[in-house]
Write a structure and sequence with these properties.
alpha/beta, Oxidized Rhodanese, domain 1, five-stranded parallel beta sheet, 6 helices, globular
Length: 149
Amino acid sequence: MSVRRLVAVLSLALAATGVLGGCGTGTSEVSVTAGAAASAAPVNGSQLGVEEFAAALRRPNTTILDVRTPEEFAAGHLPGAVNIDVSAPDFADRIGALAPDAPYAVYCRSGNRSAAAVEQMTAAGFTQAFDLGGGIIDWQEAGGEVVTD
Protein backbone atom coordinates (compact mmCIF):
# COMPACT_ATOMS: atom_id res chain seq x y z
CA MET A 1 0.00 0.00 0.00
CA SER A 2 1.35 3.41 -0.94
CA VAL A 3 1.95 6.03 1.74
CA ARG A 4 -0.72 8.20 0.13
CA ARG A 5 -3.32 5.43 0.30
CA LEU A 6 -2.29 4.60 3.88
CA VAL A 7 -2.82 8.25 4.87
CA ALA A 8 -6.24 8.21 3.19
CA VAL A 9 -7.22 5.01 5.02
CA LEU A 10 -6.01 6.38 8.35
CA SER A 11 -7.87 9.64 7.70
CA LEU A 12 -11.06 7.71 7.05
CA ALA A 13 -10.56 5.71 10.24
CA LEU A 14 -9.99 8.87 12.26
CA ALA A 15 -13.03 10.52 10.69
CA ALA A 16 -15.17 7.55 11.61
CA THR A 17 -14.18 8.02 15.24
CA GLY A 18 -14.85 11.76 15.11
CA VAL A 19 -11.19 12.82 15.44
CA LEU A 20 -11.09 14.62 12.09
CA GLY A 21 -13.65 17.25 11.22
CA GLY A 22 -15.00 17.76 14.74
CA CYS A 23 -17.89 15.92 16.33
CA GLY A 24 -19.70 13.16 14.51
CA THR A 25 -22.14 14.32 11.88
CA GLY A 26 -23.73 11.00 11.10
CA THR A 27 -21.49 10.46 8.08
CA SER A 28 -18.29 8.53 7.58
CA GLU A 29 -17.03 10.99 4.96
CA VAL A 30 -13.76 12.74 5.73
CA SER A 31 -14.11 16.49 5.77
CA VAL A 32 -11.05 17.46 3.78
CA THR A 33 -12.20 21.06 3.82
CA ALA A 34 -12.81 21.35 7.57
CA GLY A 35 -10.27 21.78 10.30
CA ALA A 36 -7.65 24.28 11.29
CA ALA A 37 -6.90 27.27 9.11
CA ALA A 38 -4.30 26.83 6.40
CA SER A 39 -0.76 27.46 7.50
CA ALA A 40 2.22 28.43 5.38
CA ALA A 41 1.80 28.52 1.62
CA PRO A 42 2.88 25.38 -0.22
CA VAL A 43 6.22 25.49 -1.98
CA ASN A 44 5.87 26.50 -5.62
CA GLY A 45 5.81 23.45 -7.86
CA SER A 46 5.18 21.02 -5.01
CA GLN A 47 2.93 17.99 -5.11
CA LEU A 48 0.69 17.74 -2.04
CA GLY A 49 -1.23 14.97 -0.35
CA VAL A 50 -4.99 15.26 0.15
CA GLU A 51 -4.87 16.86 3.61
CA GLU A 52 -2.17 19.37 2.60
CA PHE A 53 -4.08 20.19 -0.58
CA ALA A 54 -7.31 20.70 1.39
CA ALA A 55 -5.49 23.05 3.77
CA ALA A 56 -3.98 24.96 0.83
CA LEU A 57 -7.45 25.39 -0.70
CA ARG A 58 -8.46 27.38 2.39
CA ARG A 59 -5.77 29.99 1.72
CA PRO A 60 -7.26 33.28 0.48
CA ASN A 61 -7.58 33.87 -3.27
CA THR A 62 -6.54 30.34 -4.26
CA THR A 63 -7.84 29.35 -7.70
CA ILE A 64 -8.61 25.65 -8.17
CA LEU A 65 -7.59 24.44 -11.64
CA ASP A 66 -8.87 21.15 -13.01
CA VAL A 67 -6.61 20.28 -15.95
CA ARG A 68 -8.60 17.28 -17.18
CA THR A 69 -10.71 17.21 -20.33
CA PRO A 70 -14.05 19.05 -20.38
CA GLU A 71 -15.82 15.68 -20.39
CA GLU A 72 -13.98 14.54 -17.26
CA PHE A 73 -14.69 17.89 -15.60
CA ALA A 74 -18.43 17.60 -16.38
CA ALA A 75 -18.52 14.13 -14.80
CA GLY A 76 -17.38 15.57 -11.45
CA HIS A 77 -14.95 18.15 -10.12
CA LEU A 78 -13.95 19.95 -6.94
CA PRO A 79 -16.34 22.73 -5.94
CA GLY A 80 -15.32 26.07 -7.44
CA ALA A 81 -12.82 24.54 -9.87
CA VAL A 82 -12.04 26.11 -13.23
CA ASN A 83 -11.38 23.76 -16.15
CA ILE A 84 -8.33 24.38 -18.34
CA ASP A 85 -7.42 21.19 -20.24
CA VAL A 86 -3.64 20.69 -20.14
CA SER A 87 -3.82 18.61 -23.33
CA ALA A 88 -5.62 21.35 -25.30
CA PRO A 89 -3.56 23.24 -27.88
CA ASP A 90 -4.42 26.56 -26.22
CA PHE A 91 -3.30 25.57 -22.69
CA ALA A 92 -0.26 27.90 -22.74
CA ASP A 93 -2.41 30.80 -23.96
CA ARG A 94 -5.07 30.17 -21.33
CA ILE A 95 -2.61 30.02 -18.43
CA GLY A 96 -0.87 33.05 -19.93
CA ALA A 97 -4.04 35.02 -19.22
CA LEU A 98 -3.82 34.18 -15.49
CA ALA A 99 -2.02 36.22 -12.82
CA PRO A 100 1.36 34.49 -12.33
CA ASP A 101 1.72 35.61 -8.71
CA ALA A 102 -1.67 34.28 -7.50
CA PRO A 103 -2.00 30.86 -5.79
CA TYR A 104 -3.18 27.93 -7.97
CA ALA A 105 -4.25 24.51 -6.69
CA VAL A 106 -4.05 22.18 -9.69
CA TYR A 107 -5.43 18.65 -10.00
CA CYS A 108 -6.31 16.00 -12.55
CA ARG A 109 -7.43 12.37 -12.36
CA SER A 110 -4.32 10.78 -10.85
CA GLY A 111 -1.68 13.51 -10.50
CA ASN A 112 0.25 13.01 -13.74
CA ARG A 113 -1.33 15.73 -15.88
CA SER A 114 -1.48 18.18 -12.97
CA ALA A 115 2.25 17.68 -12.33
CA ALA A 116 2.91 18.44 -16.01
CA ALA A 117 0.63 21.50 -15.84
CA VAL A 118 2.38 22.85 -12.74
CA GLU A 119 5.74 22.30 -14.42
CA GLN A 120 4.56 24.35 -17.41
CA MET A 121 3.12 27.03 -15.14
CA THR A 122 6.34 27.29 -13.14
CA ALA A 123 8.35 27.56 -16.37
CA ALA A 124 5.96 30.35 -17.44
CA GLY A 125 6.74 32.33 -14.27
CA PHE A 126 4.00 31.25 -11.88
CA THR A 127 5.18 31.56 -8.28
CA GLN A 128 2.43 29.77 -6.31
CA ALA A 129 1.31 26.71 -8.27
CA PHE A 130 1.06 23.28 -6.64
CA ASP A 131 -0.80 20.08 -7.44
CA LEU A 132 -2.69 17.23 -5.82
CA GLY A 133 -0.62 14.05 -5.90
CA GLY A 134 -3.00 11.19 -6.55
CA GLY A 135 -5.51 13.56 -8.15
CA ILE A 136 -9.25 13.44 -7.79
CA ILE A 137 -9.01 9.69 -7.26
CA ASP A 138 -7.25 10.16 -3.91
CA TRP A 139 -9.46 13.17 -3.12
CA GLN A 140 -12.60 11.04 -3.46
CA GLU A 141 -11.09 8.08 -1.59
CA ALA A 142 -10.45 10.45 1.33
CA GLY A 143 -14.07 11.65 1.23
CA GLY A 144 -13.46 14.95 -0.54
CA GLU A 145 -16.44 16.69 -2.09
CA VAL A 146 -16.99 16.41 -5.84
CA VAL A 147 -19.78 18.22 -7.69
CA THR A 148 -21.30 18.22 -11.18
CA ASP A 149 -22.81 21.18 -12.98
